[in-house]
Structure formats: C-alpha cells, structure tokens
Amino acid sequence: MSAALELARAGKHVQLFDRQALGLAASGRNGGMASGSIRPGRKDLVRRFGQERAQAILLEGKAAREDLWRFLRDENIECDFSLSGAFNGAMTADQADELRRQADFLHQNLGIEAYPVERADVPNFIGTDLYVGGFVRKDIGGLQPAKLLAAMIDLASSSTAVIHENTAVLRSTSEAGGVRIQTQRGEVFARKLLVCTDGYTDGFDPWLRRRLVPVRSRIIATEPLDREVMDRLMPPRMMYGDLRKLSYYYRPSHDGSRILFGGRDGTTEGDSAAPIAHLQSELARLFPELAGIGLTHSWFGYVAMNRDMIPRMFSRGNTVYATGYCGSGVVWARWLGKKAAFKILGDGEQSRSAFDFDAAPRAVPFFNGKPWFIPIVYSMYARHDRNMLLRRRKG
C-alpha cells in the first residue's frame, strides 16, 4: 500500500492485488508496535555485512521510524499513535550488561535517547520479578495498525491507485518490456511488478517461497483490568519485550485497560487451544497476579523470516521484491514499500537503502513452503530458555 501510494502520486497507473480482504492478514492485525527492530545484534551485523553496511542498517532503522512519525503527522492520520518508548527486559546479569552496552551504543552512535535500567528501578517500568534489569529507548511507539491501513487505503485510492481485494495472483511471466500477471479474475500486463507478500507468499512465486519462512505470531488480549492493576504492572504504559530465545512482546491497549500479549506460537496449521494456553501461562509467569485472568480475544497471523534475518529489497528481471520484515513490518513494510516505489521510478537517490542487495536472500535448504522444522526449532529455544532460568535460580 505504501508503494502504491508513492507510485500513484508520481502519476503512474497502479493496480494492487490482495488474495484476501485488505487488512485481514498481518498489515491490519499485528501488535501495533512501531519498532523497526533489527534482529541480529550489532556485532553480528558487522561480522556478516562489514562495519560500513552494519552502521548504515542501524541508521536506516532510525530514519525509517522518524519517516513514519512524519508521515502520520503530515497526512493527519488518526491511528492511536503514541511515542511511548519501549522497555526491554534482561533475564540474567549477562543480559543486563549487554543491554547497558546497547543503550550506550544507541545514545552515543545513533543519537537515540536510551538508558539502562538497574534491577532496583525495574518496578518503575514493569511490575514483575522476572527481570534483573533492562533498558529503555524512547524512539519506539505504538499504534492501531488497522486504522493506519485504512488511512493508507483512502490515500492510495484518492491518488488513483486501483485496488483489487479478494483477487489472488496465480502466476507471473516475464516478457519483453514487462511482466504478464495472471489473476483469478483476469490478466494484466505491467512494465514492473512489485511483490510484497511476506509471510503470505504462496505458490504463485515458488522462487520467493523457498526464501521466506512463514512464522505464526499470536496475540491474546486480557479482559479489562482495574486502573490500579495496570498502574502496578505497566506504570509508564510502554511497549515491552525481553531477550529470551522465545521472546514475547506485550503492551497496553490504547485505552490502557487491557494487556495485549504476543509471541511466536510454534504451530504451523490449525488453531488449537494449546497455543493460547501457552501464552496465558507465559503471561502469568511474567505477572503472577494475572494467573487465571479472562481473555476476550485471540488471533494469529504470519510474519516472514529469511536467512539474513533482516528486511530485504532486491530485483529479479522486471520484478522488485520488498519483504522479509522479520516481525517488524509496521515500520519496515511502509519504509521498504516506499523505497521500492522509488526504485521502480528509477530514482536512484530516494531508493537508496542499506537493505537493497544485489543478490536475493539465499534459499532455505530442504524447504519448499511448509515450515516443517518450526516445532523442532521452538523446542530447542524453549529448552534454552528453561535452562537459563534454572541456572539463574541456582546462582
């Protein structure tokens, strides 16, 4: 939608296809945490991509967040946005040390307001005994993704973009001068095709499908809580996360009356009660007083991971790809959609991005669309986290 808006405003004839109703997938039903996170740590980025590109990736994260804030302001978009800041919790003393270093790096090298939180001060940010420290960064906020998407649909439509909901793309074929696109409702020829399917990439593009692993992310919402409970559990009403291998993300609802608690649920099909019960148990581990608390909503969607574990933009013939947001699409989907639009327009300056590589992400071995290995990986991560907590108790 971001790309459609930019291209339509540039005077191009744009058609957008979605196999579902707009917003039914992750774009409208995610956790609304506008973080622009990069999963690999700074040292890992330097090791894999070199100092220059690693620094450019981190700086672009800052630019992407700030660009989103400007977009919301300039377009007068009402989506319950709040630049609340984010707290990241440390489970061990080593993690607390790492977060101190991270806070110092963000402040000294990127100019981001960030600071460590010592153990005695943790209750000022979150009411749990699970964390031995943490850090706060003030450049992250929260919003209501469905409201943001609705506003972007209105903007794109009013800029002459033609939107086709519930219209699956079946295949695309490169031809002289462009791409022929076969949909379930007919055929379209375009000079350029932009693919932004992320965690919902299906068989229409088998080449891309081998490079993106869809991962389920599930959210539960508590029943309304008393104000004094929310004041005790989430005093500053921030966005929250931690450093477990199986990390969880959580936040207050916009009105401050509920807790939204999410995480990767480890399943690949069906919608059984087990993942919901698992999130409930982890919520109670974090906040013991919420054991047995009622839930009013639960839902899941798919994010996409690639082997680089960072968002990516790349081209193949007349097709441009912007995908692999690794669970942080609120910021990255809009940013890379915009960059991809400028790439299609031939604007080398405005399309420049540290996430635009010459080569596509490598294919995932022994993978052709069904992530059979997810339960195995999650079991390993869960064992790691259990052992970490056991060592902490013994220490």
Which key phrases capture this entry?
3-stranded antiparallel beta sheet, D-Amino Acid Oxidase, Chain A, domain 2, 35% helix, 8-stranded mixed beta sheet
Short summary of the structure?
With 395 residues, the chain is α+β, with helices and mostly antiparallel strands.
Q: What is the strand and helix layout of this fold?
A:
Elements: H1 2-9, E1 15-17, H2 26-29, E2 33-34, H3 42-49, H4 51-74, E3 86-90, H5 93-110, E4 114-117, E5 133-137, E6 141-142, H6 145-158, E7 162-164, E8 169-175, E9 178-183, E10 186-190, E11 193-195, H7 206-209, E12 213-222, H8 227-233, E13 239-242, E14 248-252, E15 259-264, H9 273-286, E16 295-305, E17 312-316, E18 319-323, H10 329-345, H11 374-394
Parallel strand pairs: 1-7, 3-13, 11-18
Antiparallel strand pairs: 2-6, 3-5, 4-5, 8-9, 9-10, 12-15, 12-16, 13-14, 14-15, 17-18
CATH class of the domain at 213-305 and 365-395: Alpha Beta
Under CATH, the topology of the domain at 213-305 and 365-395 can be stated as D-Amino Acid Oxidase, Chain A, domain 2
Outline type: globular
Write the element-wise H/E pattern from the N-terminal end onward.
HEHEHHEHEEEHEEEEEHEHEEEHEEEHH
Please count the helical segments: 11
Structural category:
alpha+beta
Beta content: 15-25%
Poorly predicted sequence stretches spanning 5 or more consecutive residues: none
Please give the share of residues in helix.
Answer: 25-40%
